[in-house]
Amino acid sequence: MKVLVTVKEVANVADDFEIEGLTIPEQFLEYDLNEWDDYAVEAAVQIAEDRDEDVEVVAVTVGPERSEETVRMALAKGVDRAVRVWDDTLAEAALVGPTAMARVLAAVAEAEDPDLVLSGVQAADDGFGATGVALAEHLEYAWAAVVNDLELDDETASVRRELEGGVEELTSVPLPAVLTIQTGINDPRYASLRGIRQAQRKELDVRTLADLGLDPAVLDDDLTLTGLARPESESDATLFEGSAADTADDLETVLRDAGVSAE
Amino acid sequence: MSDGDVLAVAEHRRGELRPVSYELIAAGRDLAADLGGDLHVAVIGGDVDSFAERVNRAGADVVHTVDEGEEFNHDVYAAATTALFEAVDPSVLLLPNSVNGLDYAPAVATRLSIPLVSDAVDLTVADDLVVTRETYGSKVETTVEATTPAAVTIRDAEWPSVEDPGDATVEPFTVDIDAPSIRSTVRGFEEVGAGDVDIGEAEFIVSVGRGIDEEANLELVEELADALDATLAASRPIVDNGWLPKNRQVGQSGAVVTPKVYLALGISGAVQHVAGMKGAETIIAVNTDPDAPIFDIADYGVVGDLFEVVPELIERFES
Ligand SMILES: Cc1cc2nc3c(=O)[nH]c(=O)nc-3n(C[C@H](O)[C@H](O)[C@H](O)COP(=O)(O)OP(=O)(O)OC[C@H]3O[C@@H](n4cnc5c(N)ncnc54)[C@H](O)[C@@H]3O)c2cc1C
């Protein structure tokens, strides 16, 4: 069995970030493995550990050289090898929408031919929440989105989909399938020192769009990034300033006025 | 060529239309007016006739009923929506950015080879369709232009709910769905998250988020909740980590709470969290980041470190 996990290095903006044109300068960005993908990696590694047969876990990412740090973390946690897709066309794209990104990932998936693909529900930075299901459609695989419980046999994935309001949907899909993994589905491990050492020796292939047989035009998804701004504050909050003691005094007044500790 | 029409697909679950259905009509009729076309609304599955009556609200020109199945099944929805799109030929396909919306919208856009922009909070028409969305944990507002036809999913509660009755014509729509294309089987539903407390009933809530950093620090906020005689609740990561049980989670996938006071400690205010607590009478936030979106909905705030403010508060309320 082969499991493919899609991972993304996401950017968080620092507390005092600035925007220049259509970008946020590098010094205001902090990079990390996408939270949702961390759970997807754990789910994949657990499948490899729990099943009797041999399971190969392959990670795929689309990102610059810097993102290898993130990919190595996935390798350190038990992923067997990784593929990183990057070239000038990708580097120059201001925005790659979810269906175009899925097309790129699909090219890797077609070459790998996995039984199961695990993606995160969404990426913390762009937040499209759409790449996994678009990938399934490109591959003509079955799929399930927002999965917080997973049982696997040779032919079927039996999952729970986490709907709104504390309701879960119990669904089965035949393999091969793409599942988008929700946080909380498991308890992601920390990489061990041994794992980190081993990760340095694991295979991490770099591929260009051309290597994957893709025309640069696959990135033309009819979407154009036209604006990046700090949202105008809608806040009409009364902000208390001063020392912790001063602000606690102010909060005490608000809380008592609202009836806290009234007796 | 598309002629400015908009096609919106309503959402229902277990016999009830979900509120976003009426918000889709608001978003759709504005767009259709700007584009000079009609608003088509579709209801797929369930009691389609009664759903059709209910979504027949001001602004809808045609309601299409697709009598296929009872509950949401993404294979049925994807097939029906694709067929409707081909029949109506709209400029914009509007779907909800719900858990189920995200379970079929990307497949439909891919199948139709049209661009998809998810989680829209605003939509306008210039030469192209201009979509505003939030990125980087709502700290950045991003504008994306899509050529039409395009698919867009809209965020919950960003558009008003259309309440006035409409005079749309209702048209049954038949789709040929071949059995093998239905690959997913929905086996049922389960309510989760019940337990010792019902935070939905609480009068005062102290809620803790990832700013608490470590499980051991939870003691501090428990102490505060005790001193205030308040119920302890949390954002999702605290529950995902197993630090508090699921029934303490506030938000889209947890509980909806409406207390007199909601004190948010180290919570950024992600949209899925806010969905569960925006109805609180008084919202107070303590957060080190002045740009945290929680301050947008707070009535009172302290830009500061919860580890400094909370002990001071405990002191003032300890009996
Ligand atoms: C389908 C789906 C459903 C979801 N459902 C829910 C849901 O039901 N409920 C929910 O909560 N989330 C839900 N989420 C997750 C949501 O998107 C956010 O990831 C989550 O709400 C973030 O929690 P947080 O605010 O505690 O953490 P973060 O966003 O990490 O914020 C932590 C905050 O703490 C502040 N902070 C750090 N240190 C301190 C300090 N010492 N003092 C004061 N402040 C500090 C930081 O400035 C930051 O603003 C869902 C997501 C998806 C995709």
TrEMBL record, chain A:
Segments traversing the membrane: none
Signal peptide per UniProt: none
Entry keyword set: Electron transport, Transport
Highest taxon above the source species: Archaea
SUPFAM superfamilies: Adenine nucleotide alpha hydrolases-like
Annotated Electron transfer flavoprotein alpha/beta-subunit N-terminal domain residues: 21-216
SMART domains xrefs: ETF
Family: Belongs to the ETF beta-subunit/FixA family.
PANTHER family: ELECTRON TRANSFER FLAVOPROTEIN BETA-SUBUNIT, ELECTRON TRANSFER FLAVOPROTEIN SUBUNIT BETA
The protein, known as: Electron transfer flavoprotein subunit beta/FixA family protein
Species this chain originates from: Haloplanus ruber
Taxonomy of the source species: Archaea, Methanobacteriati, Methanobacteriota, Stenosarchaea group, Halobacteria
TrEMBL record, chain B:
Keyword vocabulary terms for this entry: FAD, Flavoprotein
UniProt xrefs under Pfam families: ETF, ETF_alpha
Keyword Flavoprotein: yes
Domain Electron transfer flavoprotein alpha/beta-subunit N-terminal stretches: 6-186
InterPro entries referenced in this protein's UniProt entry, alphabetically: DHS-like_NAD/FAD-binding_dom, ETF_a/b_N, ETF_a/FixB, ETF_alpha_N, ETF_asu_C, Rossmann-like_a/b/a_fold
PANTHER family according to UniProt: ELECTRON TRANSFER FLAVOPROTEIN ALPHA, ELECTRON TRANSFER FLAVOPROTEIN SUBUNIT ALPHA, MITOCHONDRIAL
Family stated for the protein in its record: Belongs to the ETF alpha-subunit/FixB family.
Protein name (record): Electron transfer flavoprotein subunit alpha/FixB family protein
